[in-house]
Amino acid sequence: MNKNLEQLGMEIDKASDQSDLETLSRCLARCAKTLKSGQKVDRPLIYYFQANTFSAIRQIKANDETYFWSWVQPELTREVLSLRQAIRDPHFHHLDKIRRCQILTNLGGVFNALGRPIKALEMRDSALRILPQFAMALGNRGIGLCNYSDALYDLGHQNIFLMQALGNLREALSPRSVWDGEYPSTVRENFQTRANEIKAFLDHNFDESHFEPYSWPIGTSKNEKKFRKWRLENRLFLNPLNDLDTWPIAAHDVFHLPDHSYGIDEKPRFVQFYDLLKQEYVAACLLLFEGSQGKHNHYADKEILVFEHGDGSIGGVRIEKQKVAFRSAYSILDKIAMFLNEYYDLGKDRKRLNFRTVWHEGRGKDINSRIPQNNWRLRSLYALSLDLFDSEFKETALPHAELLNDVRNAAEHRFLQVYEDGMVFQSDEITTRLAYTELYRLSLRMLKISRAALIYLSLAMYHQENVVSPVMRSGIDRQEIPKR
Fold first, then answer.
1. Cα 196 to Cα 26, 140, 148, 163, 236, distances in angstroms
2. Domains of the chain
3. Among 410, 405, 411, which residue's Cα sits nearest to residue 390?
4. Of 116, 124, 235, 428, which shows the fewest CB atoms inside 10 Å?
């Protein structure tokens, strides 16, 4: 690290410790200037410093009760953007292992603050693949699993999550763990306290010897087993246990809506809505799986008259299945918006609903007053919606959002051409062109997003029905946001 960057990092740390907003604002300006004029190889580190600055500003502002409860926190969004830009930068892999783990662990912490435990877990697992004994990733993974467990309605799943959390906390505190710096003693003390609490609870509520995650059947036919194994490995089952591991016990779409109430004249419709969403999701998984298997044409491609265009594009049922999987996964989100509109009686125009804008009052940018902002599980859905692109909210869209939106529009309304690997992404007003591997990658990403949304929807409803009184839905349930 050059001396100027080292000085900038130290200045950010000092201003953070002193809650010096004026200096932090100057540091942000220096980060922006250095990103424009500095060496490209330094960009991931500058993005990391920028994220730390936004984090410090956010935590200072969070002392204000109104800011704390607000879903719209520009610093939080910019922190996510900065860390993601650091990871996406081609020079990220040139950083040393410790720094890469710091960036990934911090991003996990921000996702946890946003109420997105699935994405938080994914980031911490990415850090641990780089350095399996990285203490902060282990400890924060354990605490994150506790938070995830608290949101679940299944007691058996809760205990399994706590068992994993205890293991992570113990590893973080072991002599083998790797600490990336000097931390206050309170950090280790917090990890130890949480570990002690979990152990005391599990000793009275869970017999680990009866937990046999590999004893469950994964299917009967060869194709079914292959399909279920693919879903397990890609964390695609509607089962929170699949977020923990690829155990056969997780190869079942058991997640559903919790017990909930209806008005006197209201039909019990939400279970049916959720069933339809689950069936569409599983079908999309199957289509992507089938579309990614083998290189041979489908029998339906035989005897179809198509011309050789000489541009390297490829087609066939295999490609179309992946396109349909992508479109279905994306459309699930807009159907969740319809669900939310009905459940919370938001009064939005059903013909103009989409997942990106359902949260807002009228056509403005203020959160709808009928949405209970004290429901952190619901906030997770809102935070997830920021991963999508909308022309009216493009300033908060995350890095890949516009790409996903462009591919969806091409698949739905224009032309989407697929090419052998090596094709550089191109798009115009009529046609979007992308590589086969990119189509698969984007389709898989959309399935992961829609899976998370389906799980968060159920968790938000469970919180609404069981924590917040159905009558007094505006009651306060202040859950401290975990810090990094």
1. 43, 15, 18, 12, 32
2. 3-210 (1.25.40.10), 255-466 (no CATH)
3. 405
4. 428
Q: Rounded to an integer, what distance in angstroms lies between the CA atom of residue 398 and that of residue 389?
A: 8
Choose among 148, 108, 112: nearest CA to 127. 108
Burial 348-379 (b: 16+ CB within 10 A, else e): beeeebebbbbbbeeeeeebbeebbbbbbbbb
- Predicted local confidence at residue 110, as pLDDT: 93
Tell whether the torsion through CA atoms of 184, 190, 195 and 200 is positive or negative: positive
Is there a contact between 328 and 285 (Cβ–Cβ < 8 Å)?
no
Residue 283 CA to residue 286 CA, distance in Å, equals 5
Instruction: Please provide the average confidence, as pLDDT, over all residues in the chain.
Output: 87
Kindly state the tokens that stand for 37: 């004029």
Q: Strand pairing of 426-427 and 431-435?
A: antiparallel
Looking at residue 422, what is its pLDDT? 73
**pTM confidence score:** 0.90
Tokens 């999550």, residue? 161
Provide the pLDDT for residue 296. 65
